[in-house]
Amino acid sequence: QDIVSGESEEESNGVNLMEFSDEILLHILSYVPCTDLVLNVRRTCRKLAMLCLDKSLTHTVILQKDYKVNKDKVKQLMRDIGKEIYQLNMAGCYWLPSSTIDHVTRCKNLVKLNLSGCHVTSLRLSKMLSTLQHLRSLAIDVNPGFDASQLSSECKATLSRVSELKQTLYTPSYGVVPCCTSLEKLLLYFEILDRSREGFMLSGQLMVGESNVPHYQNLRVFYARLAPGYVNQEVVRLYLAVLSDRTPENLHAFLISAPGSFAETGATKNLLDSMARNVRLDALQLPKAWINGSGLLQHLKFNNPFYFSFSRCTLSGGHLIQRVINGGKDLKSLTSLNLSGCVHCLAPESLFRKAEDDIDSSILESLVVSCCNLRHLNLSAAHHHSSESIGNHLCQLLSRLKHLLSLALPVCSITDVAANVEKPPTASNLVPQTFGRKVRIGIQTYPRNLADQANQKIESSVFWALMGSLRFLETLEIIGSSFSSAMPRNEPAIRNSLPPCVRAQSVGDSEVAAISQLTYLQSLTLAQLPNILTGSGLINIGLQCQHLRTLSLANLGMMGKVVYMSALMDMLKHCKCLRDLRLEQPYFCAGAQFFQALSHCSSLQRLCIVSRSGTLQSDAVMSFMANCLEVIMCHMFTGESLTICKNLQQSIVRSFQADRPALNVVIFPLLHEDLTEVIRDVPMRHLDEITLFKSRVAEEPPNLWW
Fold this sequence. Notes:
- There is one protein chain.
- The protein is α/β, with parallel strands linked by helices.
- α7 (about 120-130) packs across α8 (about 155-160), α20 packs parallel to α21 and α23 packs parallel to α24 (about 640-655).
- This is FXL18 protein.
């Protein structure tokens, strides 16, 4: 009856979807998942049956984050349009059984294939690649048990033609790299743990029979990202050893992202010296120990650089301007810059400077003028304090970067200096940010709509003006310079946190309200904003930022109480497009009211709650999971007992796993000694994108992989 009434309404209005041109219909259909197009939509009528098989829709098939796809759907999809697929992305489809990969052999014309995060054995990989003679781009995982000797000659012939390879290593191995003799782009992700499940220390030595040498002579892009651990460092040195012998002449991007200390060796020094003599780079990222105290940057040559990362380096602003920007050289080609943790990058020198000293605005101005086309900028994890000079505030200078799409700033950098000088510290500023005895303070009443905020004249603040000038910003991170998550990667949960910067003490609700000007905002991270009193600014964001898909909130306001709970619940009622929500807050109560509000987020797919001494209500969680049918990830690390956590996790899996094949549930006490063992079983896609807290702006070069 609804369909009939809908058709009659269309006829009365003179509008019929099928009367649109093929071009318009193809554009509309491009937003529909391919599995729905082929298995459902094309069966509705003859016209759609023809359009759904158009080359523009079947050329590239993306199953990544299509959490409803299962083995049978993939089988049917490959059977129907396998020969028409040229690019297939199955990255992160961890829930599909390894036998699903067998159906990829139907895609005889594949040029690009992404199987990162999928279960693929050596034998299955060999069988599949033997049939894909046109393949030029491949992404796979190398897991324990991988044996390159099981690869057939036909498989190796295919690999010899592959020019782009992305390889995630969970075991010390060269993987398929030695077979790829035509490599132009090599991306390596090292995720090898230092200890086995049984507690044995692992070695970085390669397995027997893996002494083949990689072929780098045609290499243009080399990228390596290391997870914490000494084994990862040992293995990456084996990959770099070949590069140090002979540097590829066409190398234009060399990037190594390594946490902690990754010491330079004689081999790596030879490699860098060779690069300085023989290549001109367009993208550069090196471990901090390779840059600190060396004159390397002075000798490296750049062509038209589009990406620089000096994350966690002690590089001073003087060196940055002189050696990288060449005293103000035109760098319009630079689109992405990561200076996260580079504490002296906006100061002329670092020898006698304290990290909390004021920045030199002339350095930032030179950077802004020279790199006027920046789209991604990360200045987080440092104290960037502006002076009292009029017109030279960091926010005022950054407002000139009209092309910015993503921005990460420390909380203390957005403080209005003049306002801080005029106003003495308030009672809320003096509240200690600890877990000790609570201090009772008067709560200032903040208006809950944008018009009332305007009446308070907060538009005059430099941060308000910055947000108003960056109207096309899609990703924003405001993170306390001393913030550290309670859930590091391979260590026990952190029990204590450092206090926020003194300059950050005044940052609170009005600054959060200013963010609501970003109409196109898709991802927002707020961490360690000490002066949040009611969270009223969150409501403004919920009302105005209707494209918001990812929200991460951590340690807002007083640490002993969740003061913004009411505002958060009001905000969530308006977040219809929200897909990922991460909350990290001590004493967070995940009860019935919270989950009732969260149920308004009809598009929500992933939820992560990290809360020391936090509580949860099992019945409310179950009701929420039943109401929100799109949720496929539920991670909760609280103060509840192990028994309660296990029972709830089992109940969720038992009730919803059958209808949600991608469902991943981890509910575990935050301070339990076995937390790291539980974390290692979380699919890398969830772990890297939401469960672990980190700054993601300019983390990698844009469009590093398709």
